Amino acid sequence: MFSIPAQNLYFILAPLVSAQLLLMVLMYFVFVSRRVLRGFYFHLLFLLSFSCFLLGKPLQFYVEFESAIAILYVRVALFFALGLPAMSCAAALQCGLKLGKIHYTVAFTVAMLTALTYVIAADAANYQLFIANDAVFALVLDDNLAQYALMLNALLLSVLPNLYLLFVCLRARGKVGALKTSGQTHSALSFVIGAASFGVLLLASYAVGEAYWLYYIGSLFIAACWCWPAYRDMRELKSRAQWLNEELQLLVSRGGTELNRHSVSAVLKELELASCGDVSAYKLKLREALGRLVGASVAAGADAPSMLKRSNHTLAELESSDNRDKLTDVAANEALALAEVMADLPKQRGEALVDKACQYLAEHYAERCDVDSLAEHAGVSRSYMMRCFKQVKGQTIKQYLLVLRMDKAKQFLATKSITETAFAVGFNDSNYFSSVFKKYTGLTPGQFQQQCSL
Description:
Helices cover 80% and strands 0% of the residues. It is mostly helical. The N and C termini lie far apart (119 Å). The relative contact order is 0.05.
């Protein structure tokens, strides 16, 4: 059965896995969700120093003895002198506390003194690479002092500060209310829980006696606790961006007095804020928003090829600039232009519908034509057909059909009899046709024929 030696597991594999996880968290913060962090550079300093602390451990096994001891001192000094105080400062800033120079000075001074104490005591007691352990220091500089220095460091710069911050966050959460806890309080609480748990596990690992697996567990826990608010923030940003896209589409589709450059630019600025200052992300969101508007225009009846050509031109403009104001201006212009297109679509659809109706009447004027048959042919309701026809032609369908029949009757009377003409233009009664014709032209059909023969 496959097995891993305990030494390789504790000193090589586990540190490498933990360091890789922390570096992934670091990359996530830097490139994806930096907005969620307060005190970004303190988080960065902690993650880098802790990663070096972990990666240095397996490296010690592949170098000479003196180099291995030097690596030990460097990794411990970096982590305990810079990493732990940076973690506590980051957690305090994440909780919304204001730190002054005195806080930073005290934290990093205590951290450096305890880390230096560890290096001096450990070297004098065991290796004497830099410090000679003569009789004068033999009673003071020993392994116990080195361990106590690191434990004191973990207690003062990690456990106690973060337990206090945990109390502050829980009290703030209680004031906000269990049902209305703010997102920032949730985020701070998650960061502080991760930092406090890590500090406790780190302290326990040295108190128990080099139980390194405890702070490996701590690294997993702090990575999870720190990634959760970042993931939650990204999910909220995505939801907000989607809502803003829908808001822009609704604003453009609805038109009216609410639609103007100011209202469109305001939504686009909100979309820019949801991009966390990332120009590429802003461009992506603008492309998505304008794409939805173009799709809505096509769905409403706009010409697809012309819309595609227009969209490609706008996208090329967006790609050619990295200036946020210019990007907003280009997107606002396009949104307003698409709003005009969508506003004209009902008129265009109405004109196309009436043209279709007129063509039908021109082909079937000799038959029995009424509004119901015309609406059924066009696939619209009777009332919609009547309204569109009146708006476009300025007359009712009945009036238009009568004019069409009378114009055709004038043509037919030159070669046909009155009765033949009446049936040719859709009248079943020649007498009724004659009365309608006289009302329309001022002449009877017979008088019109006589006039034409002169």
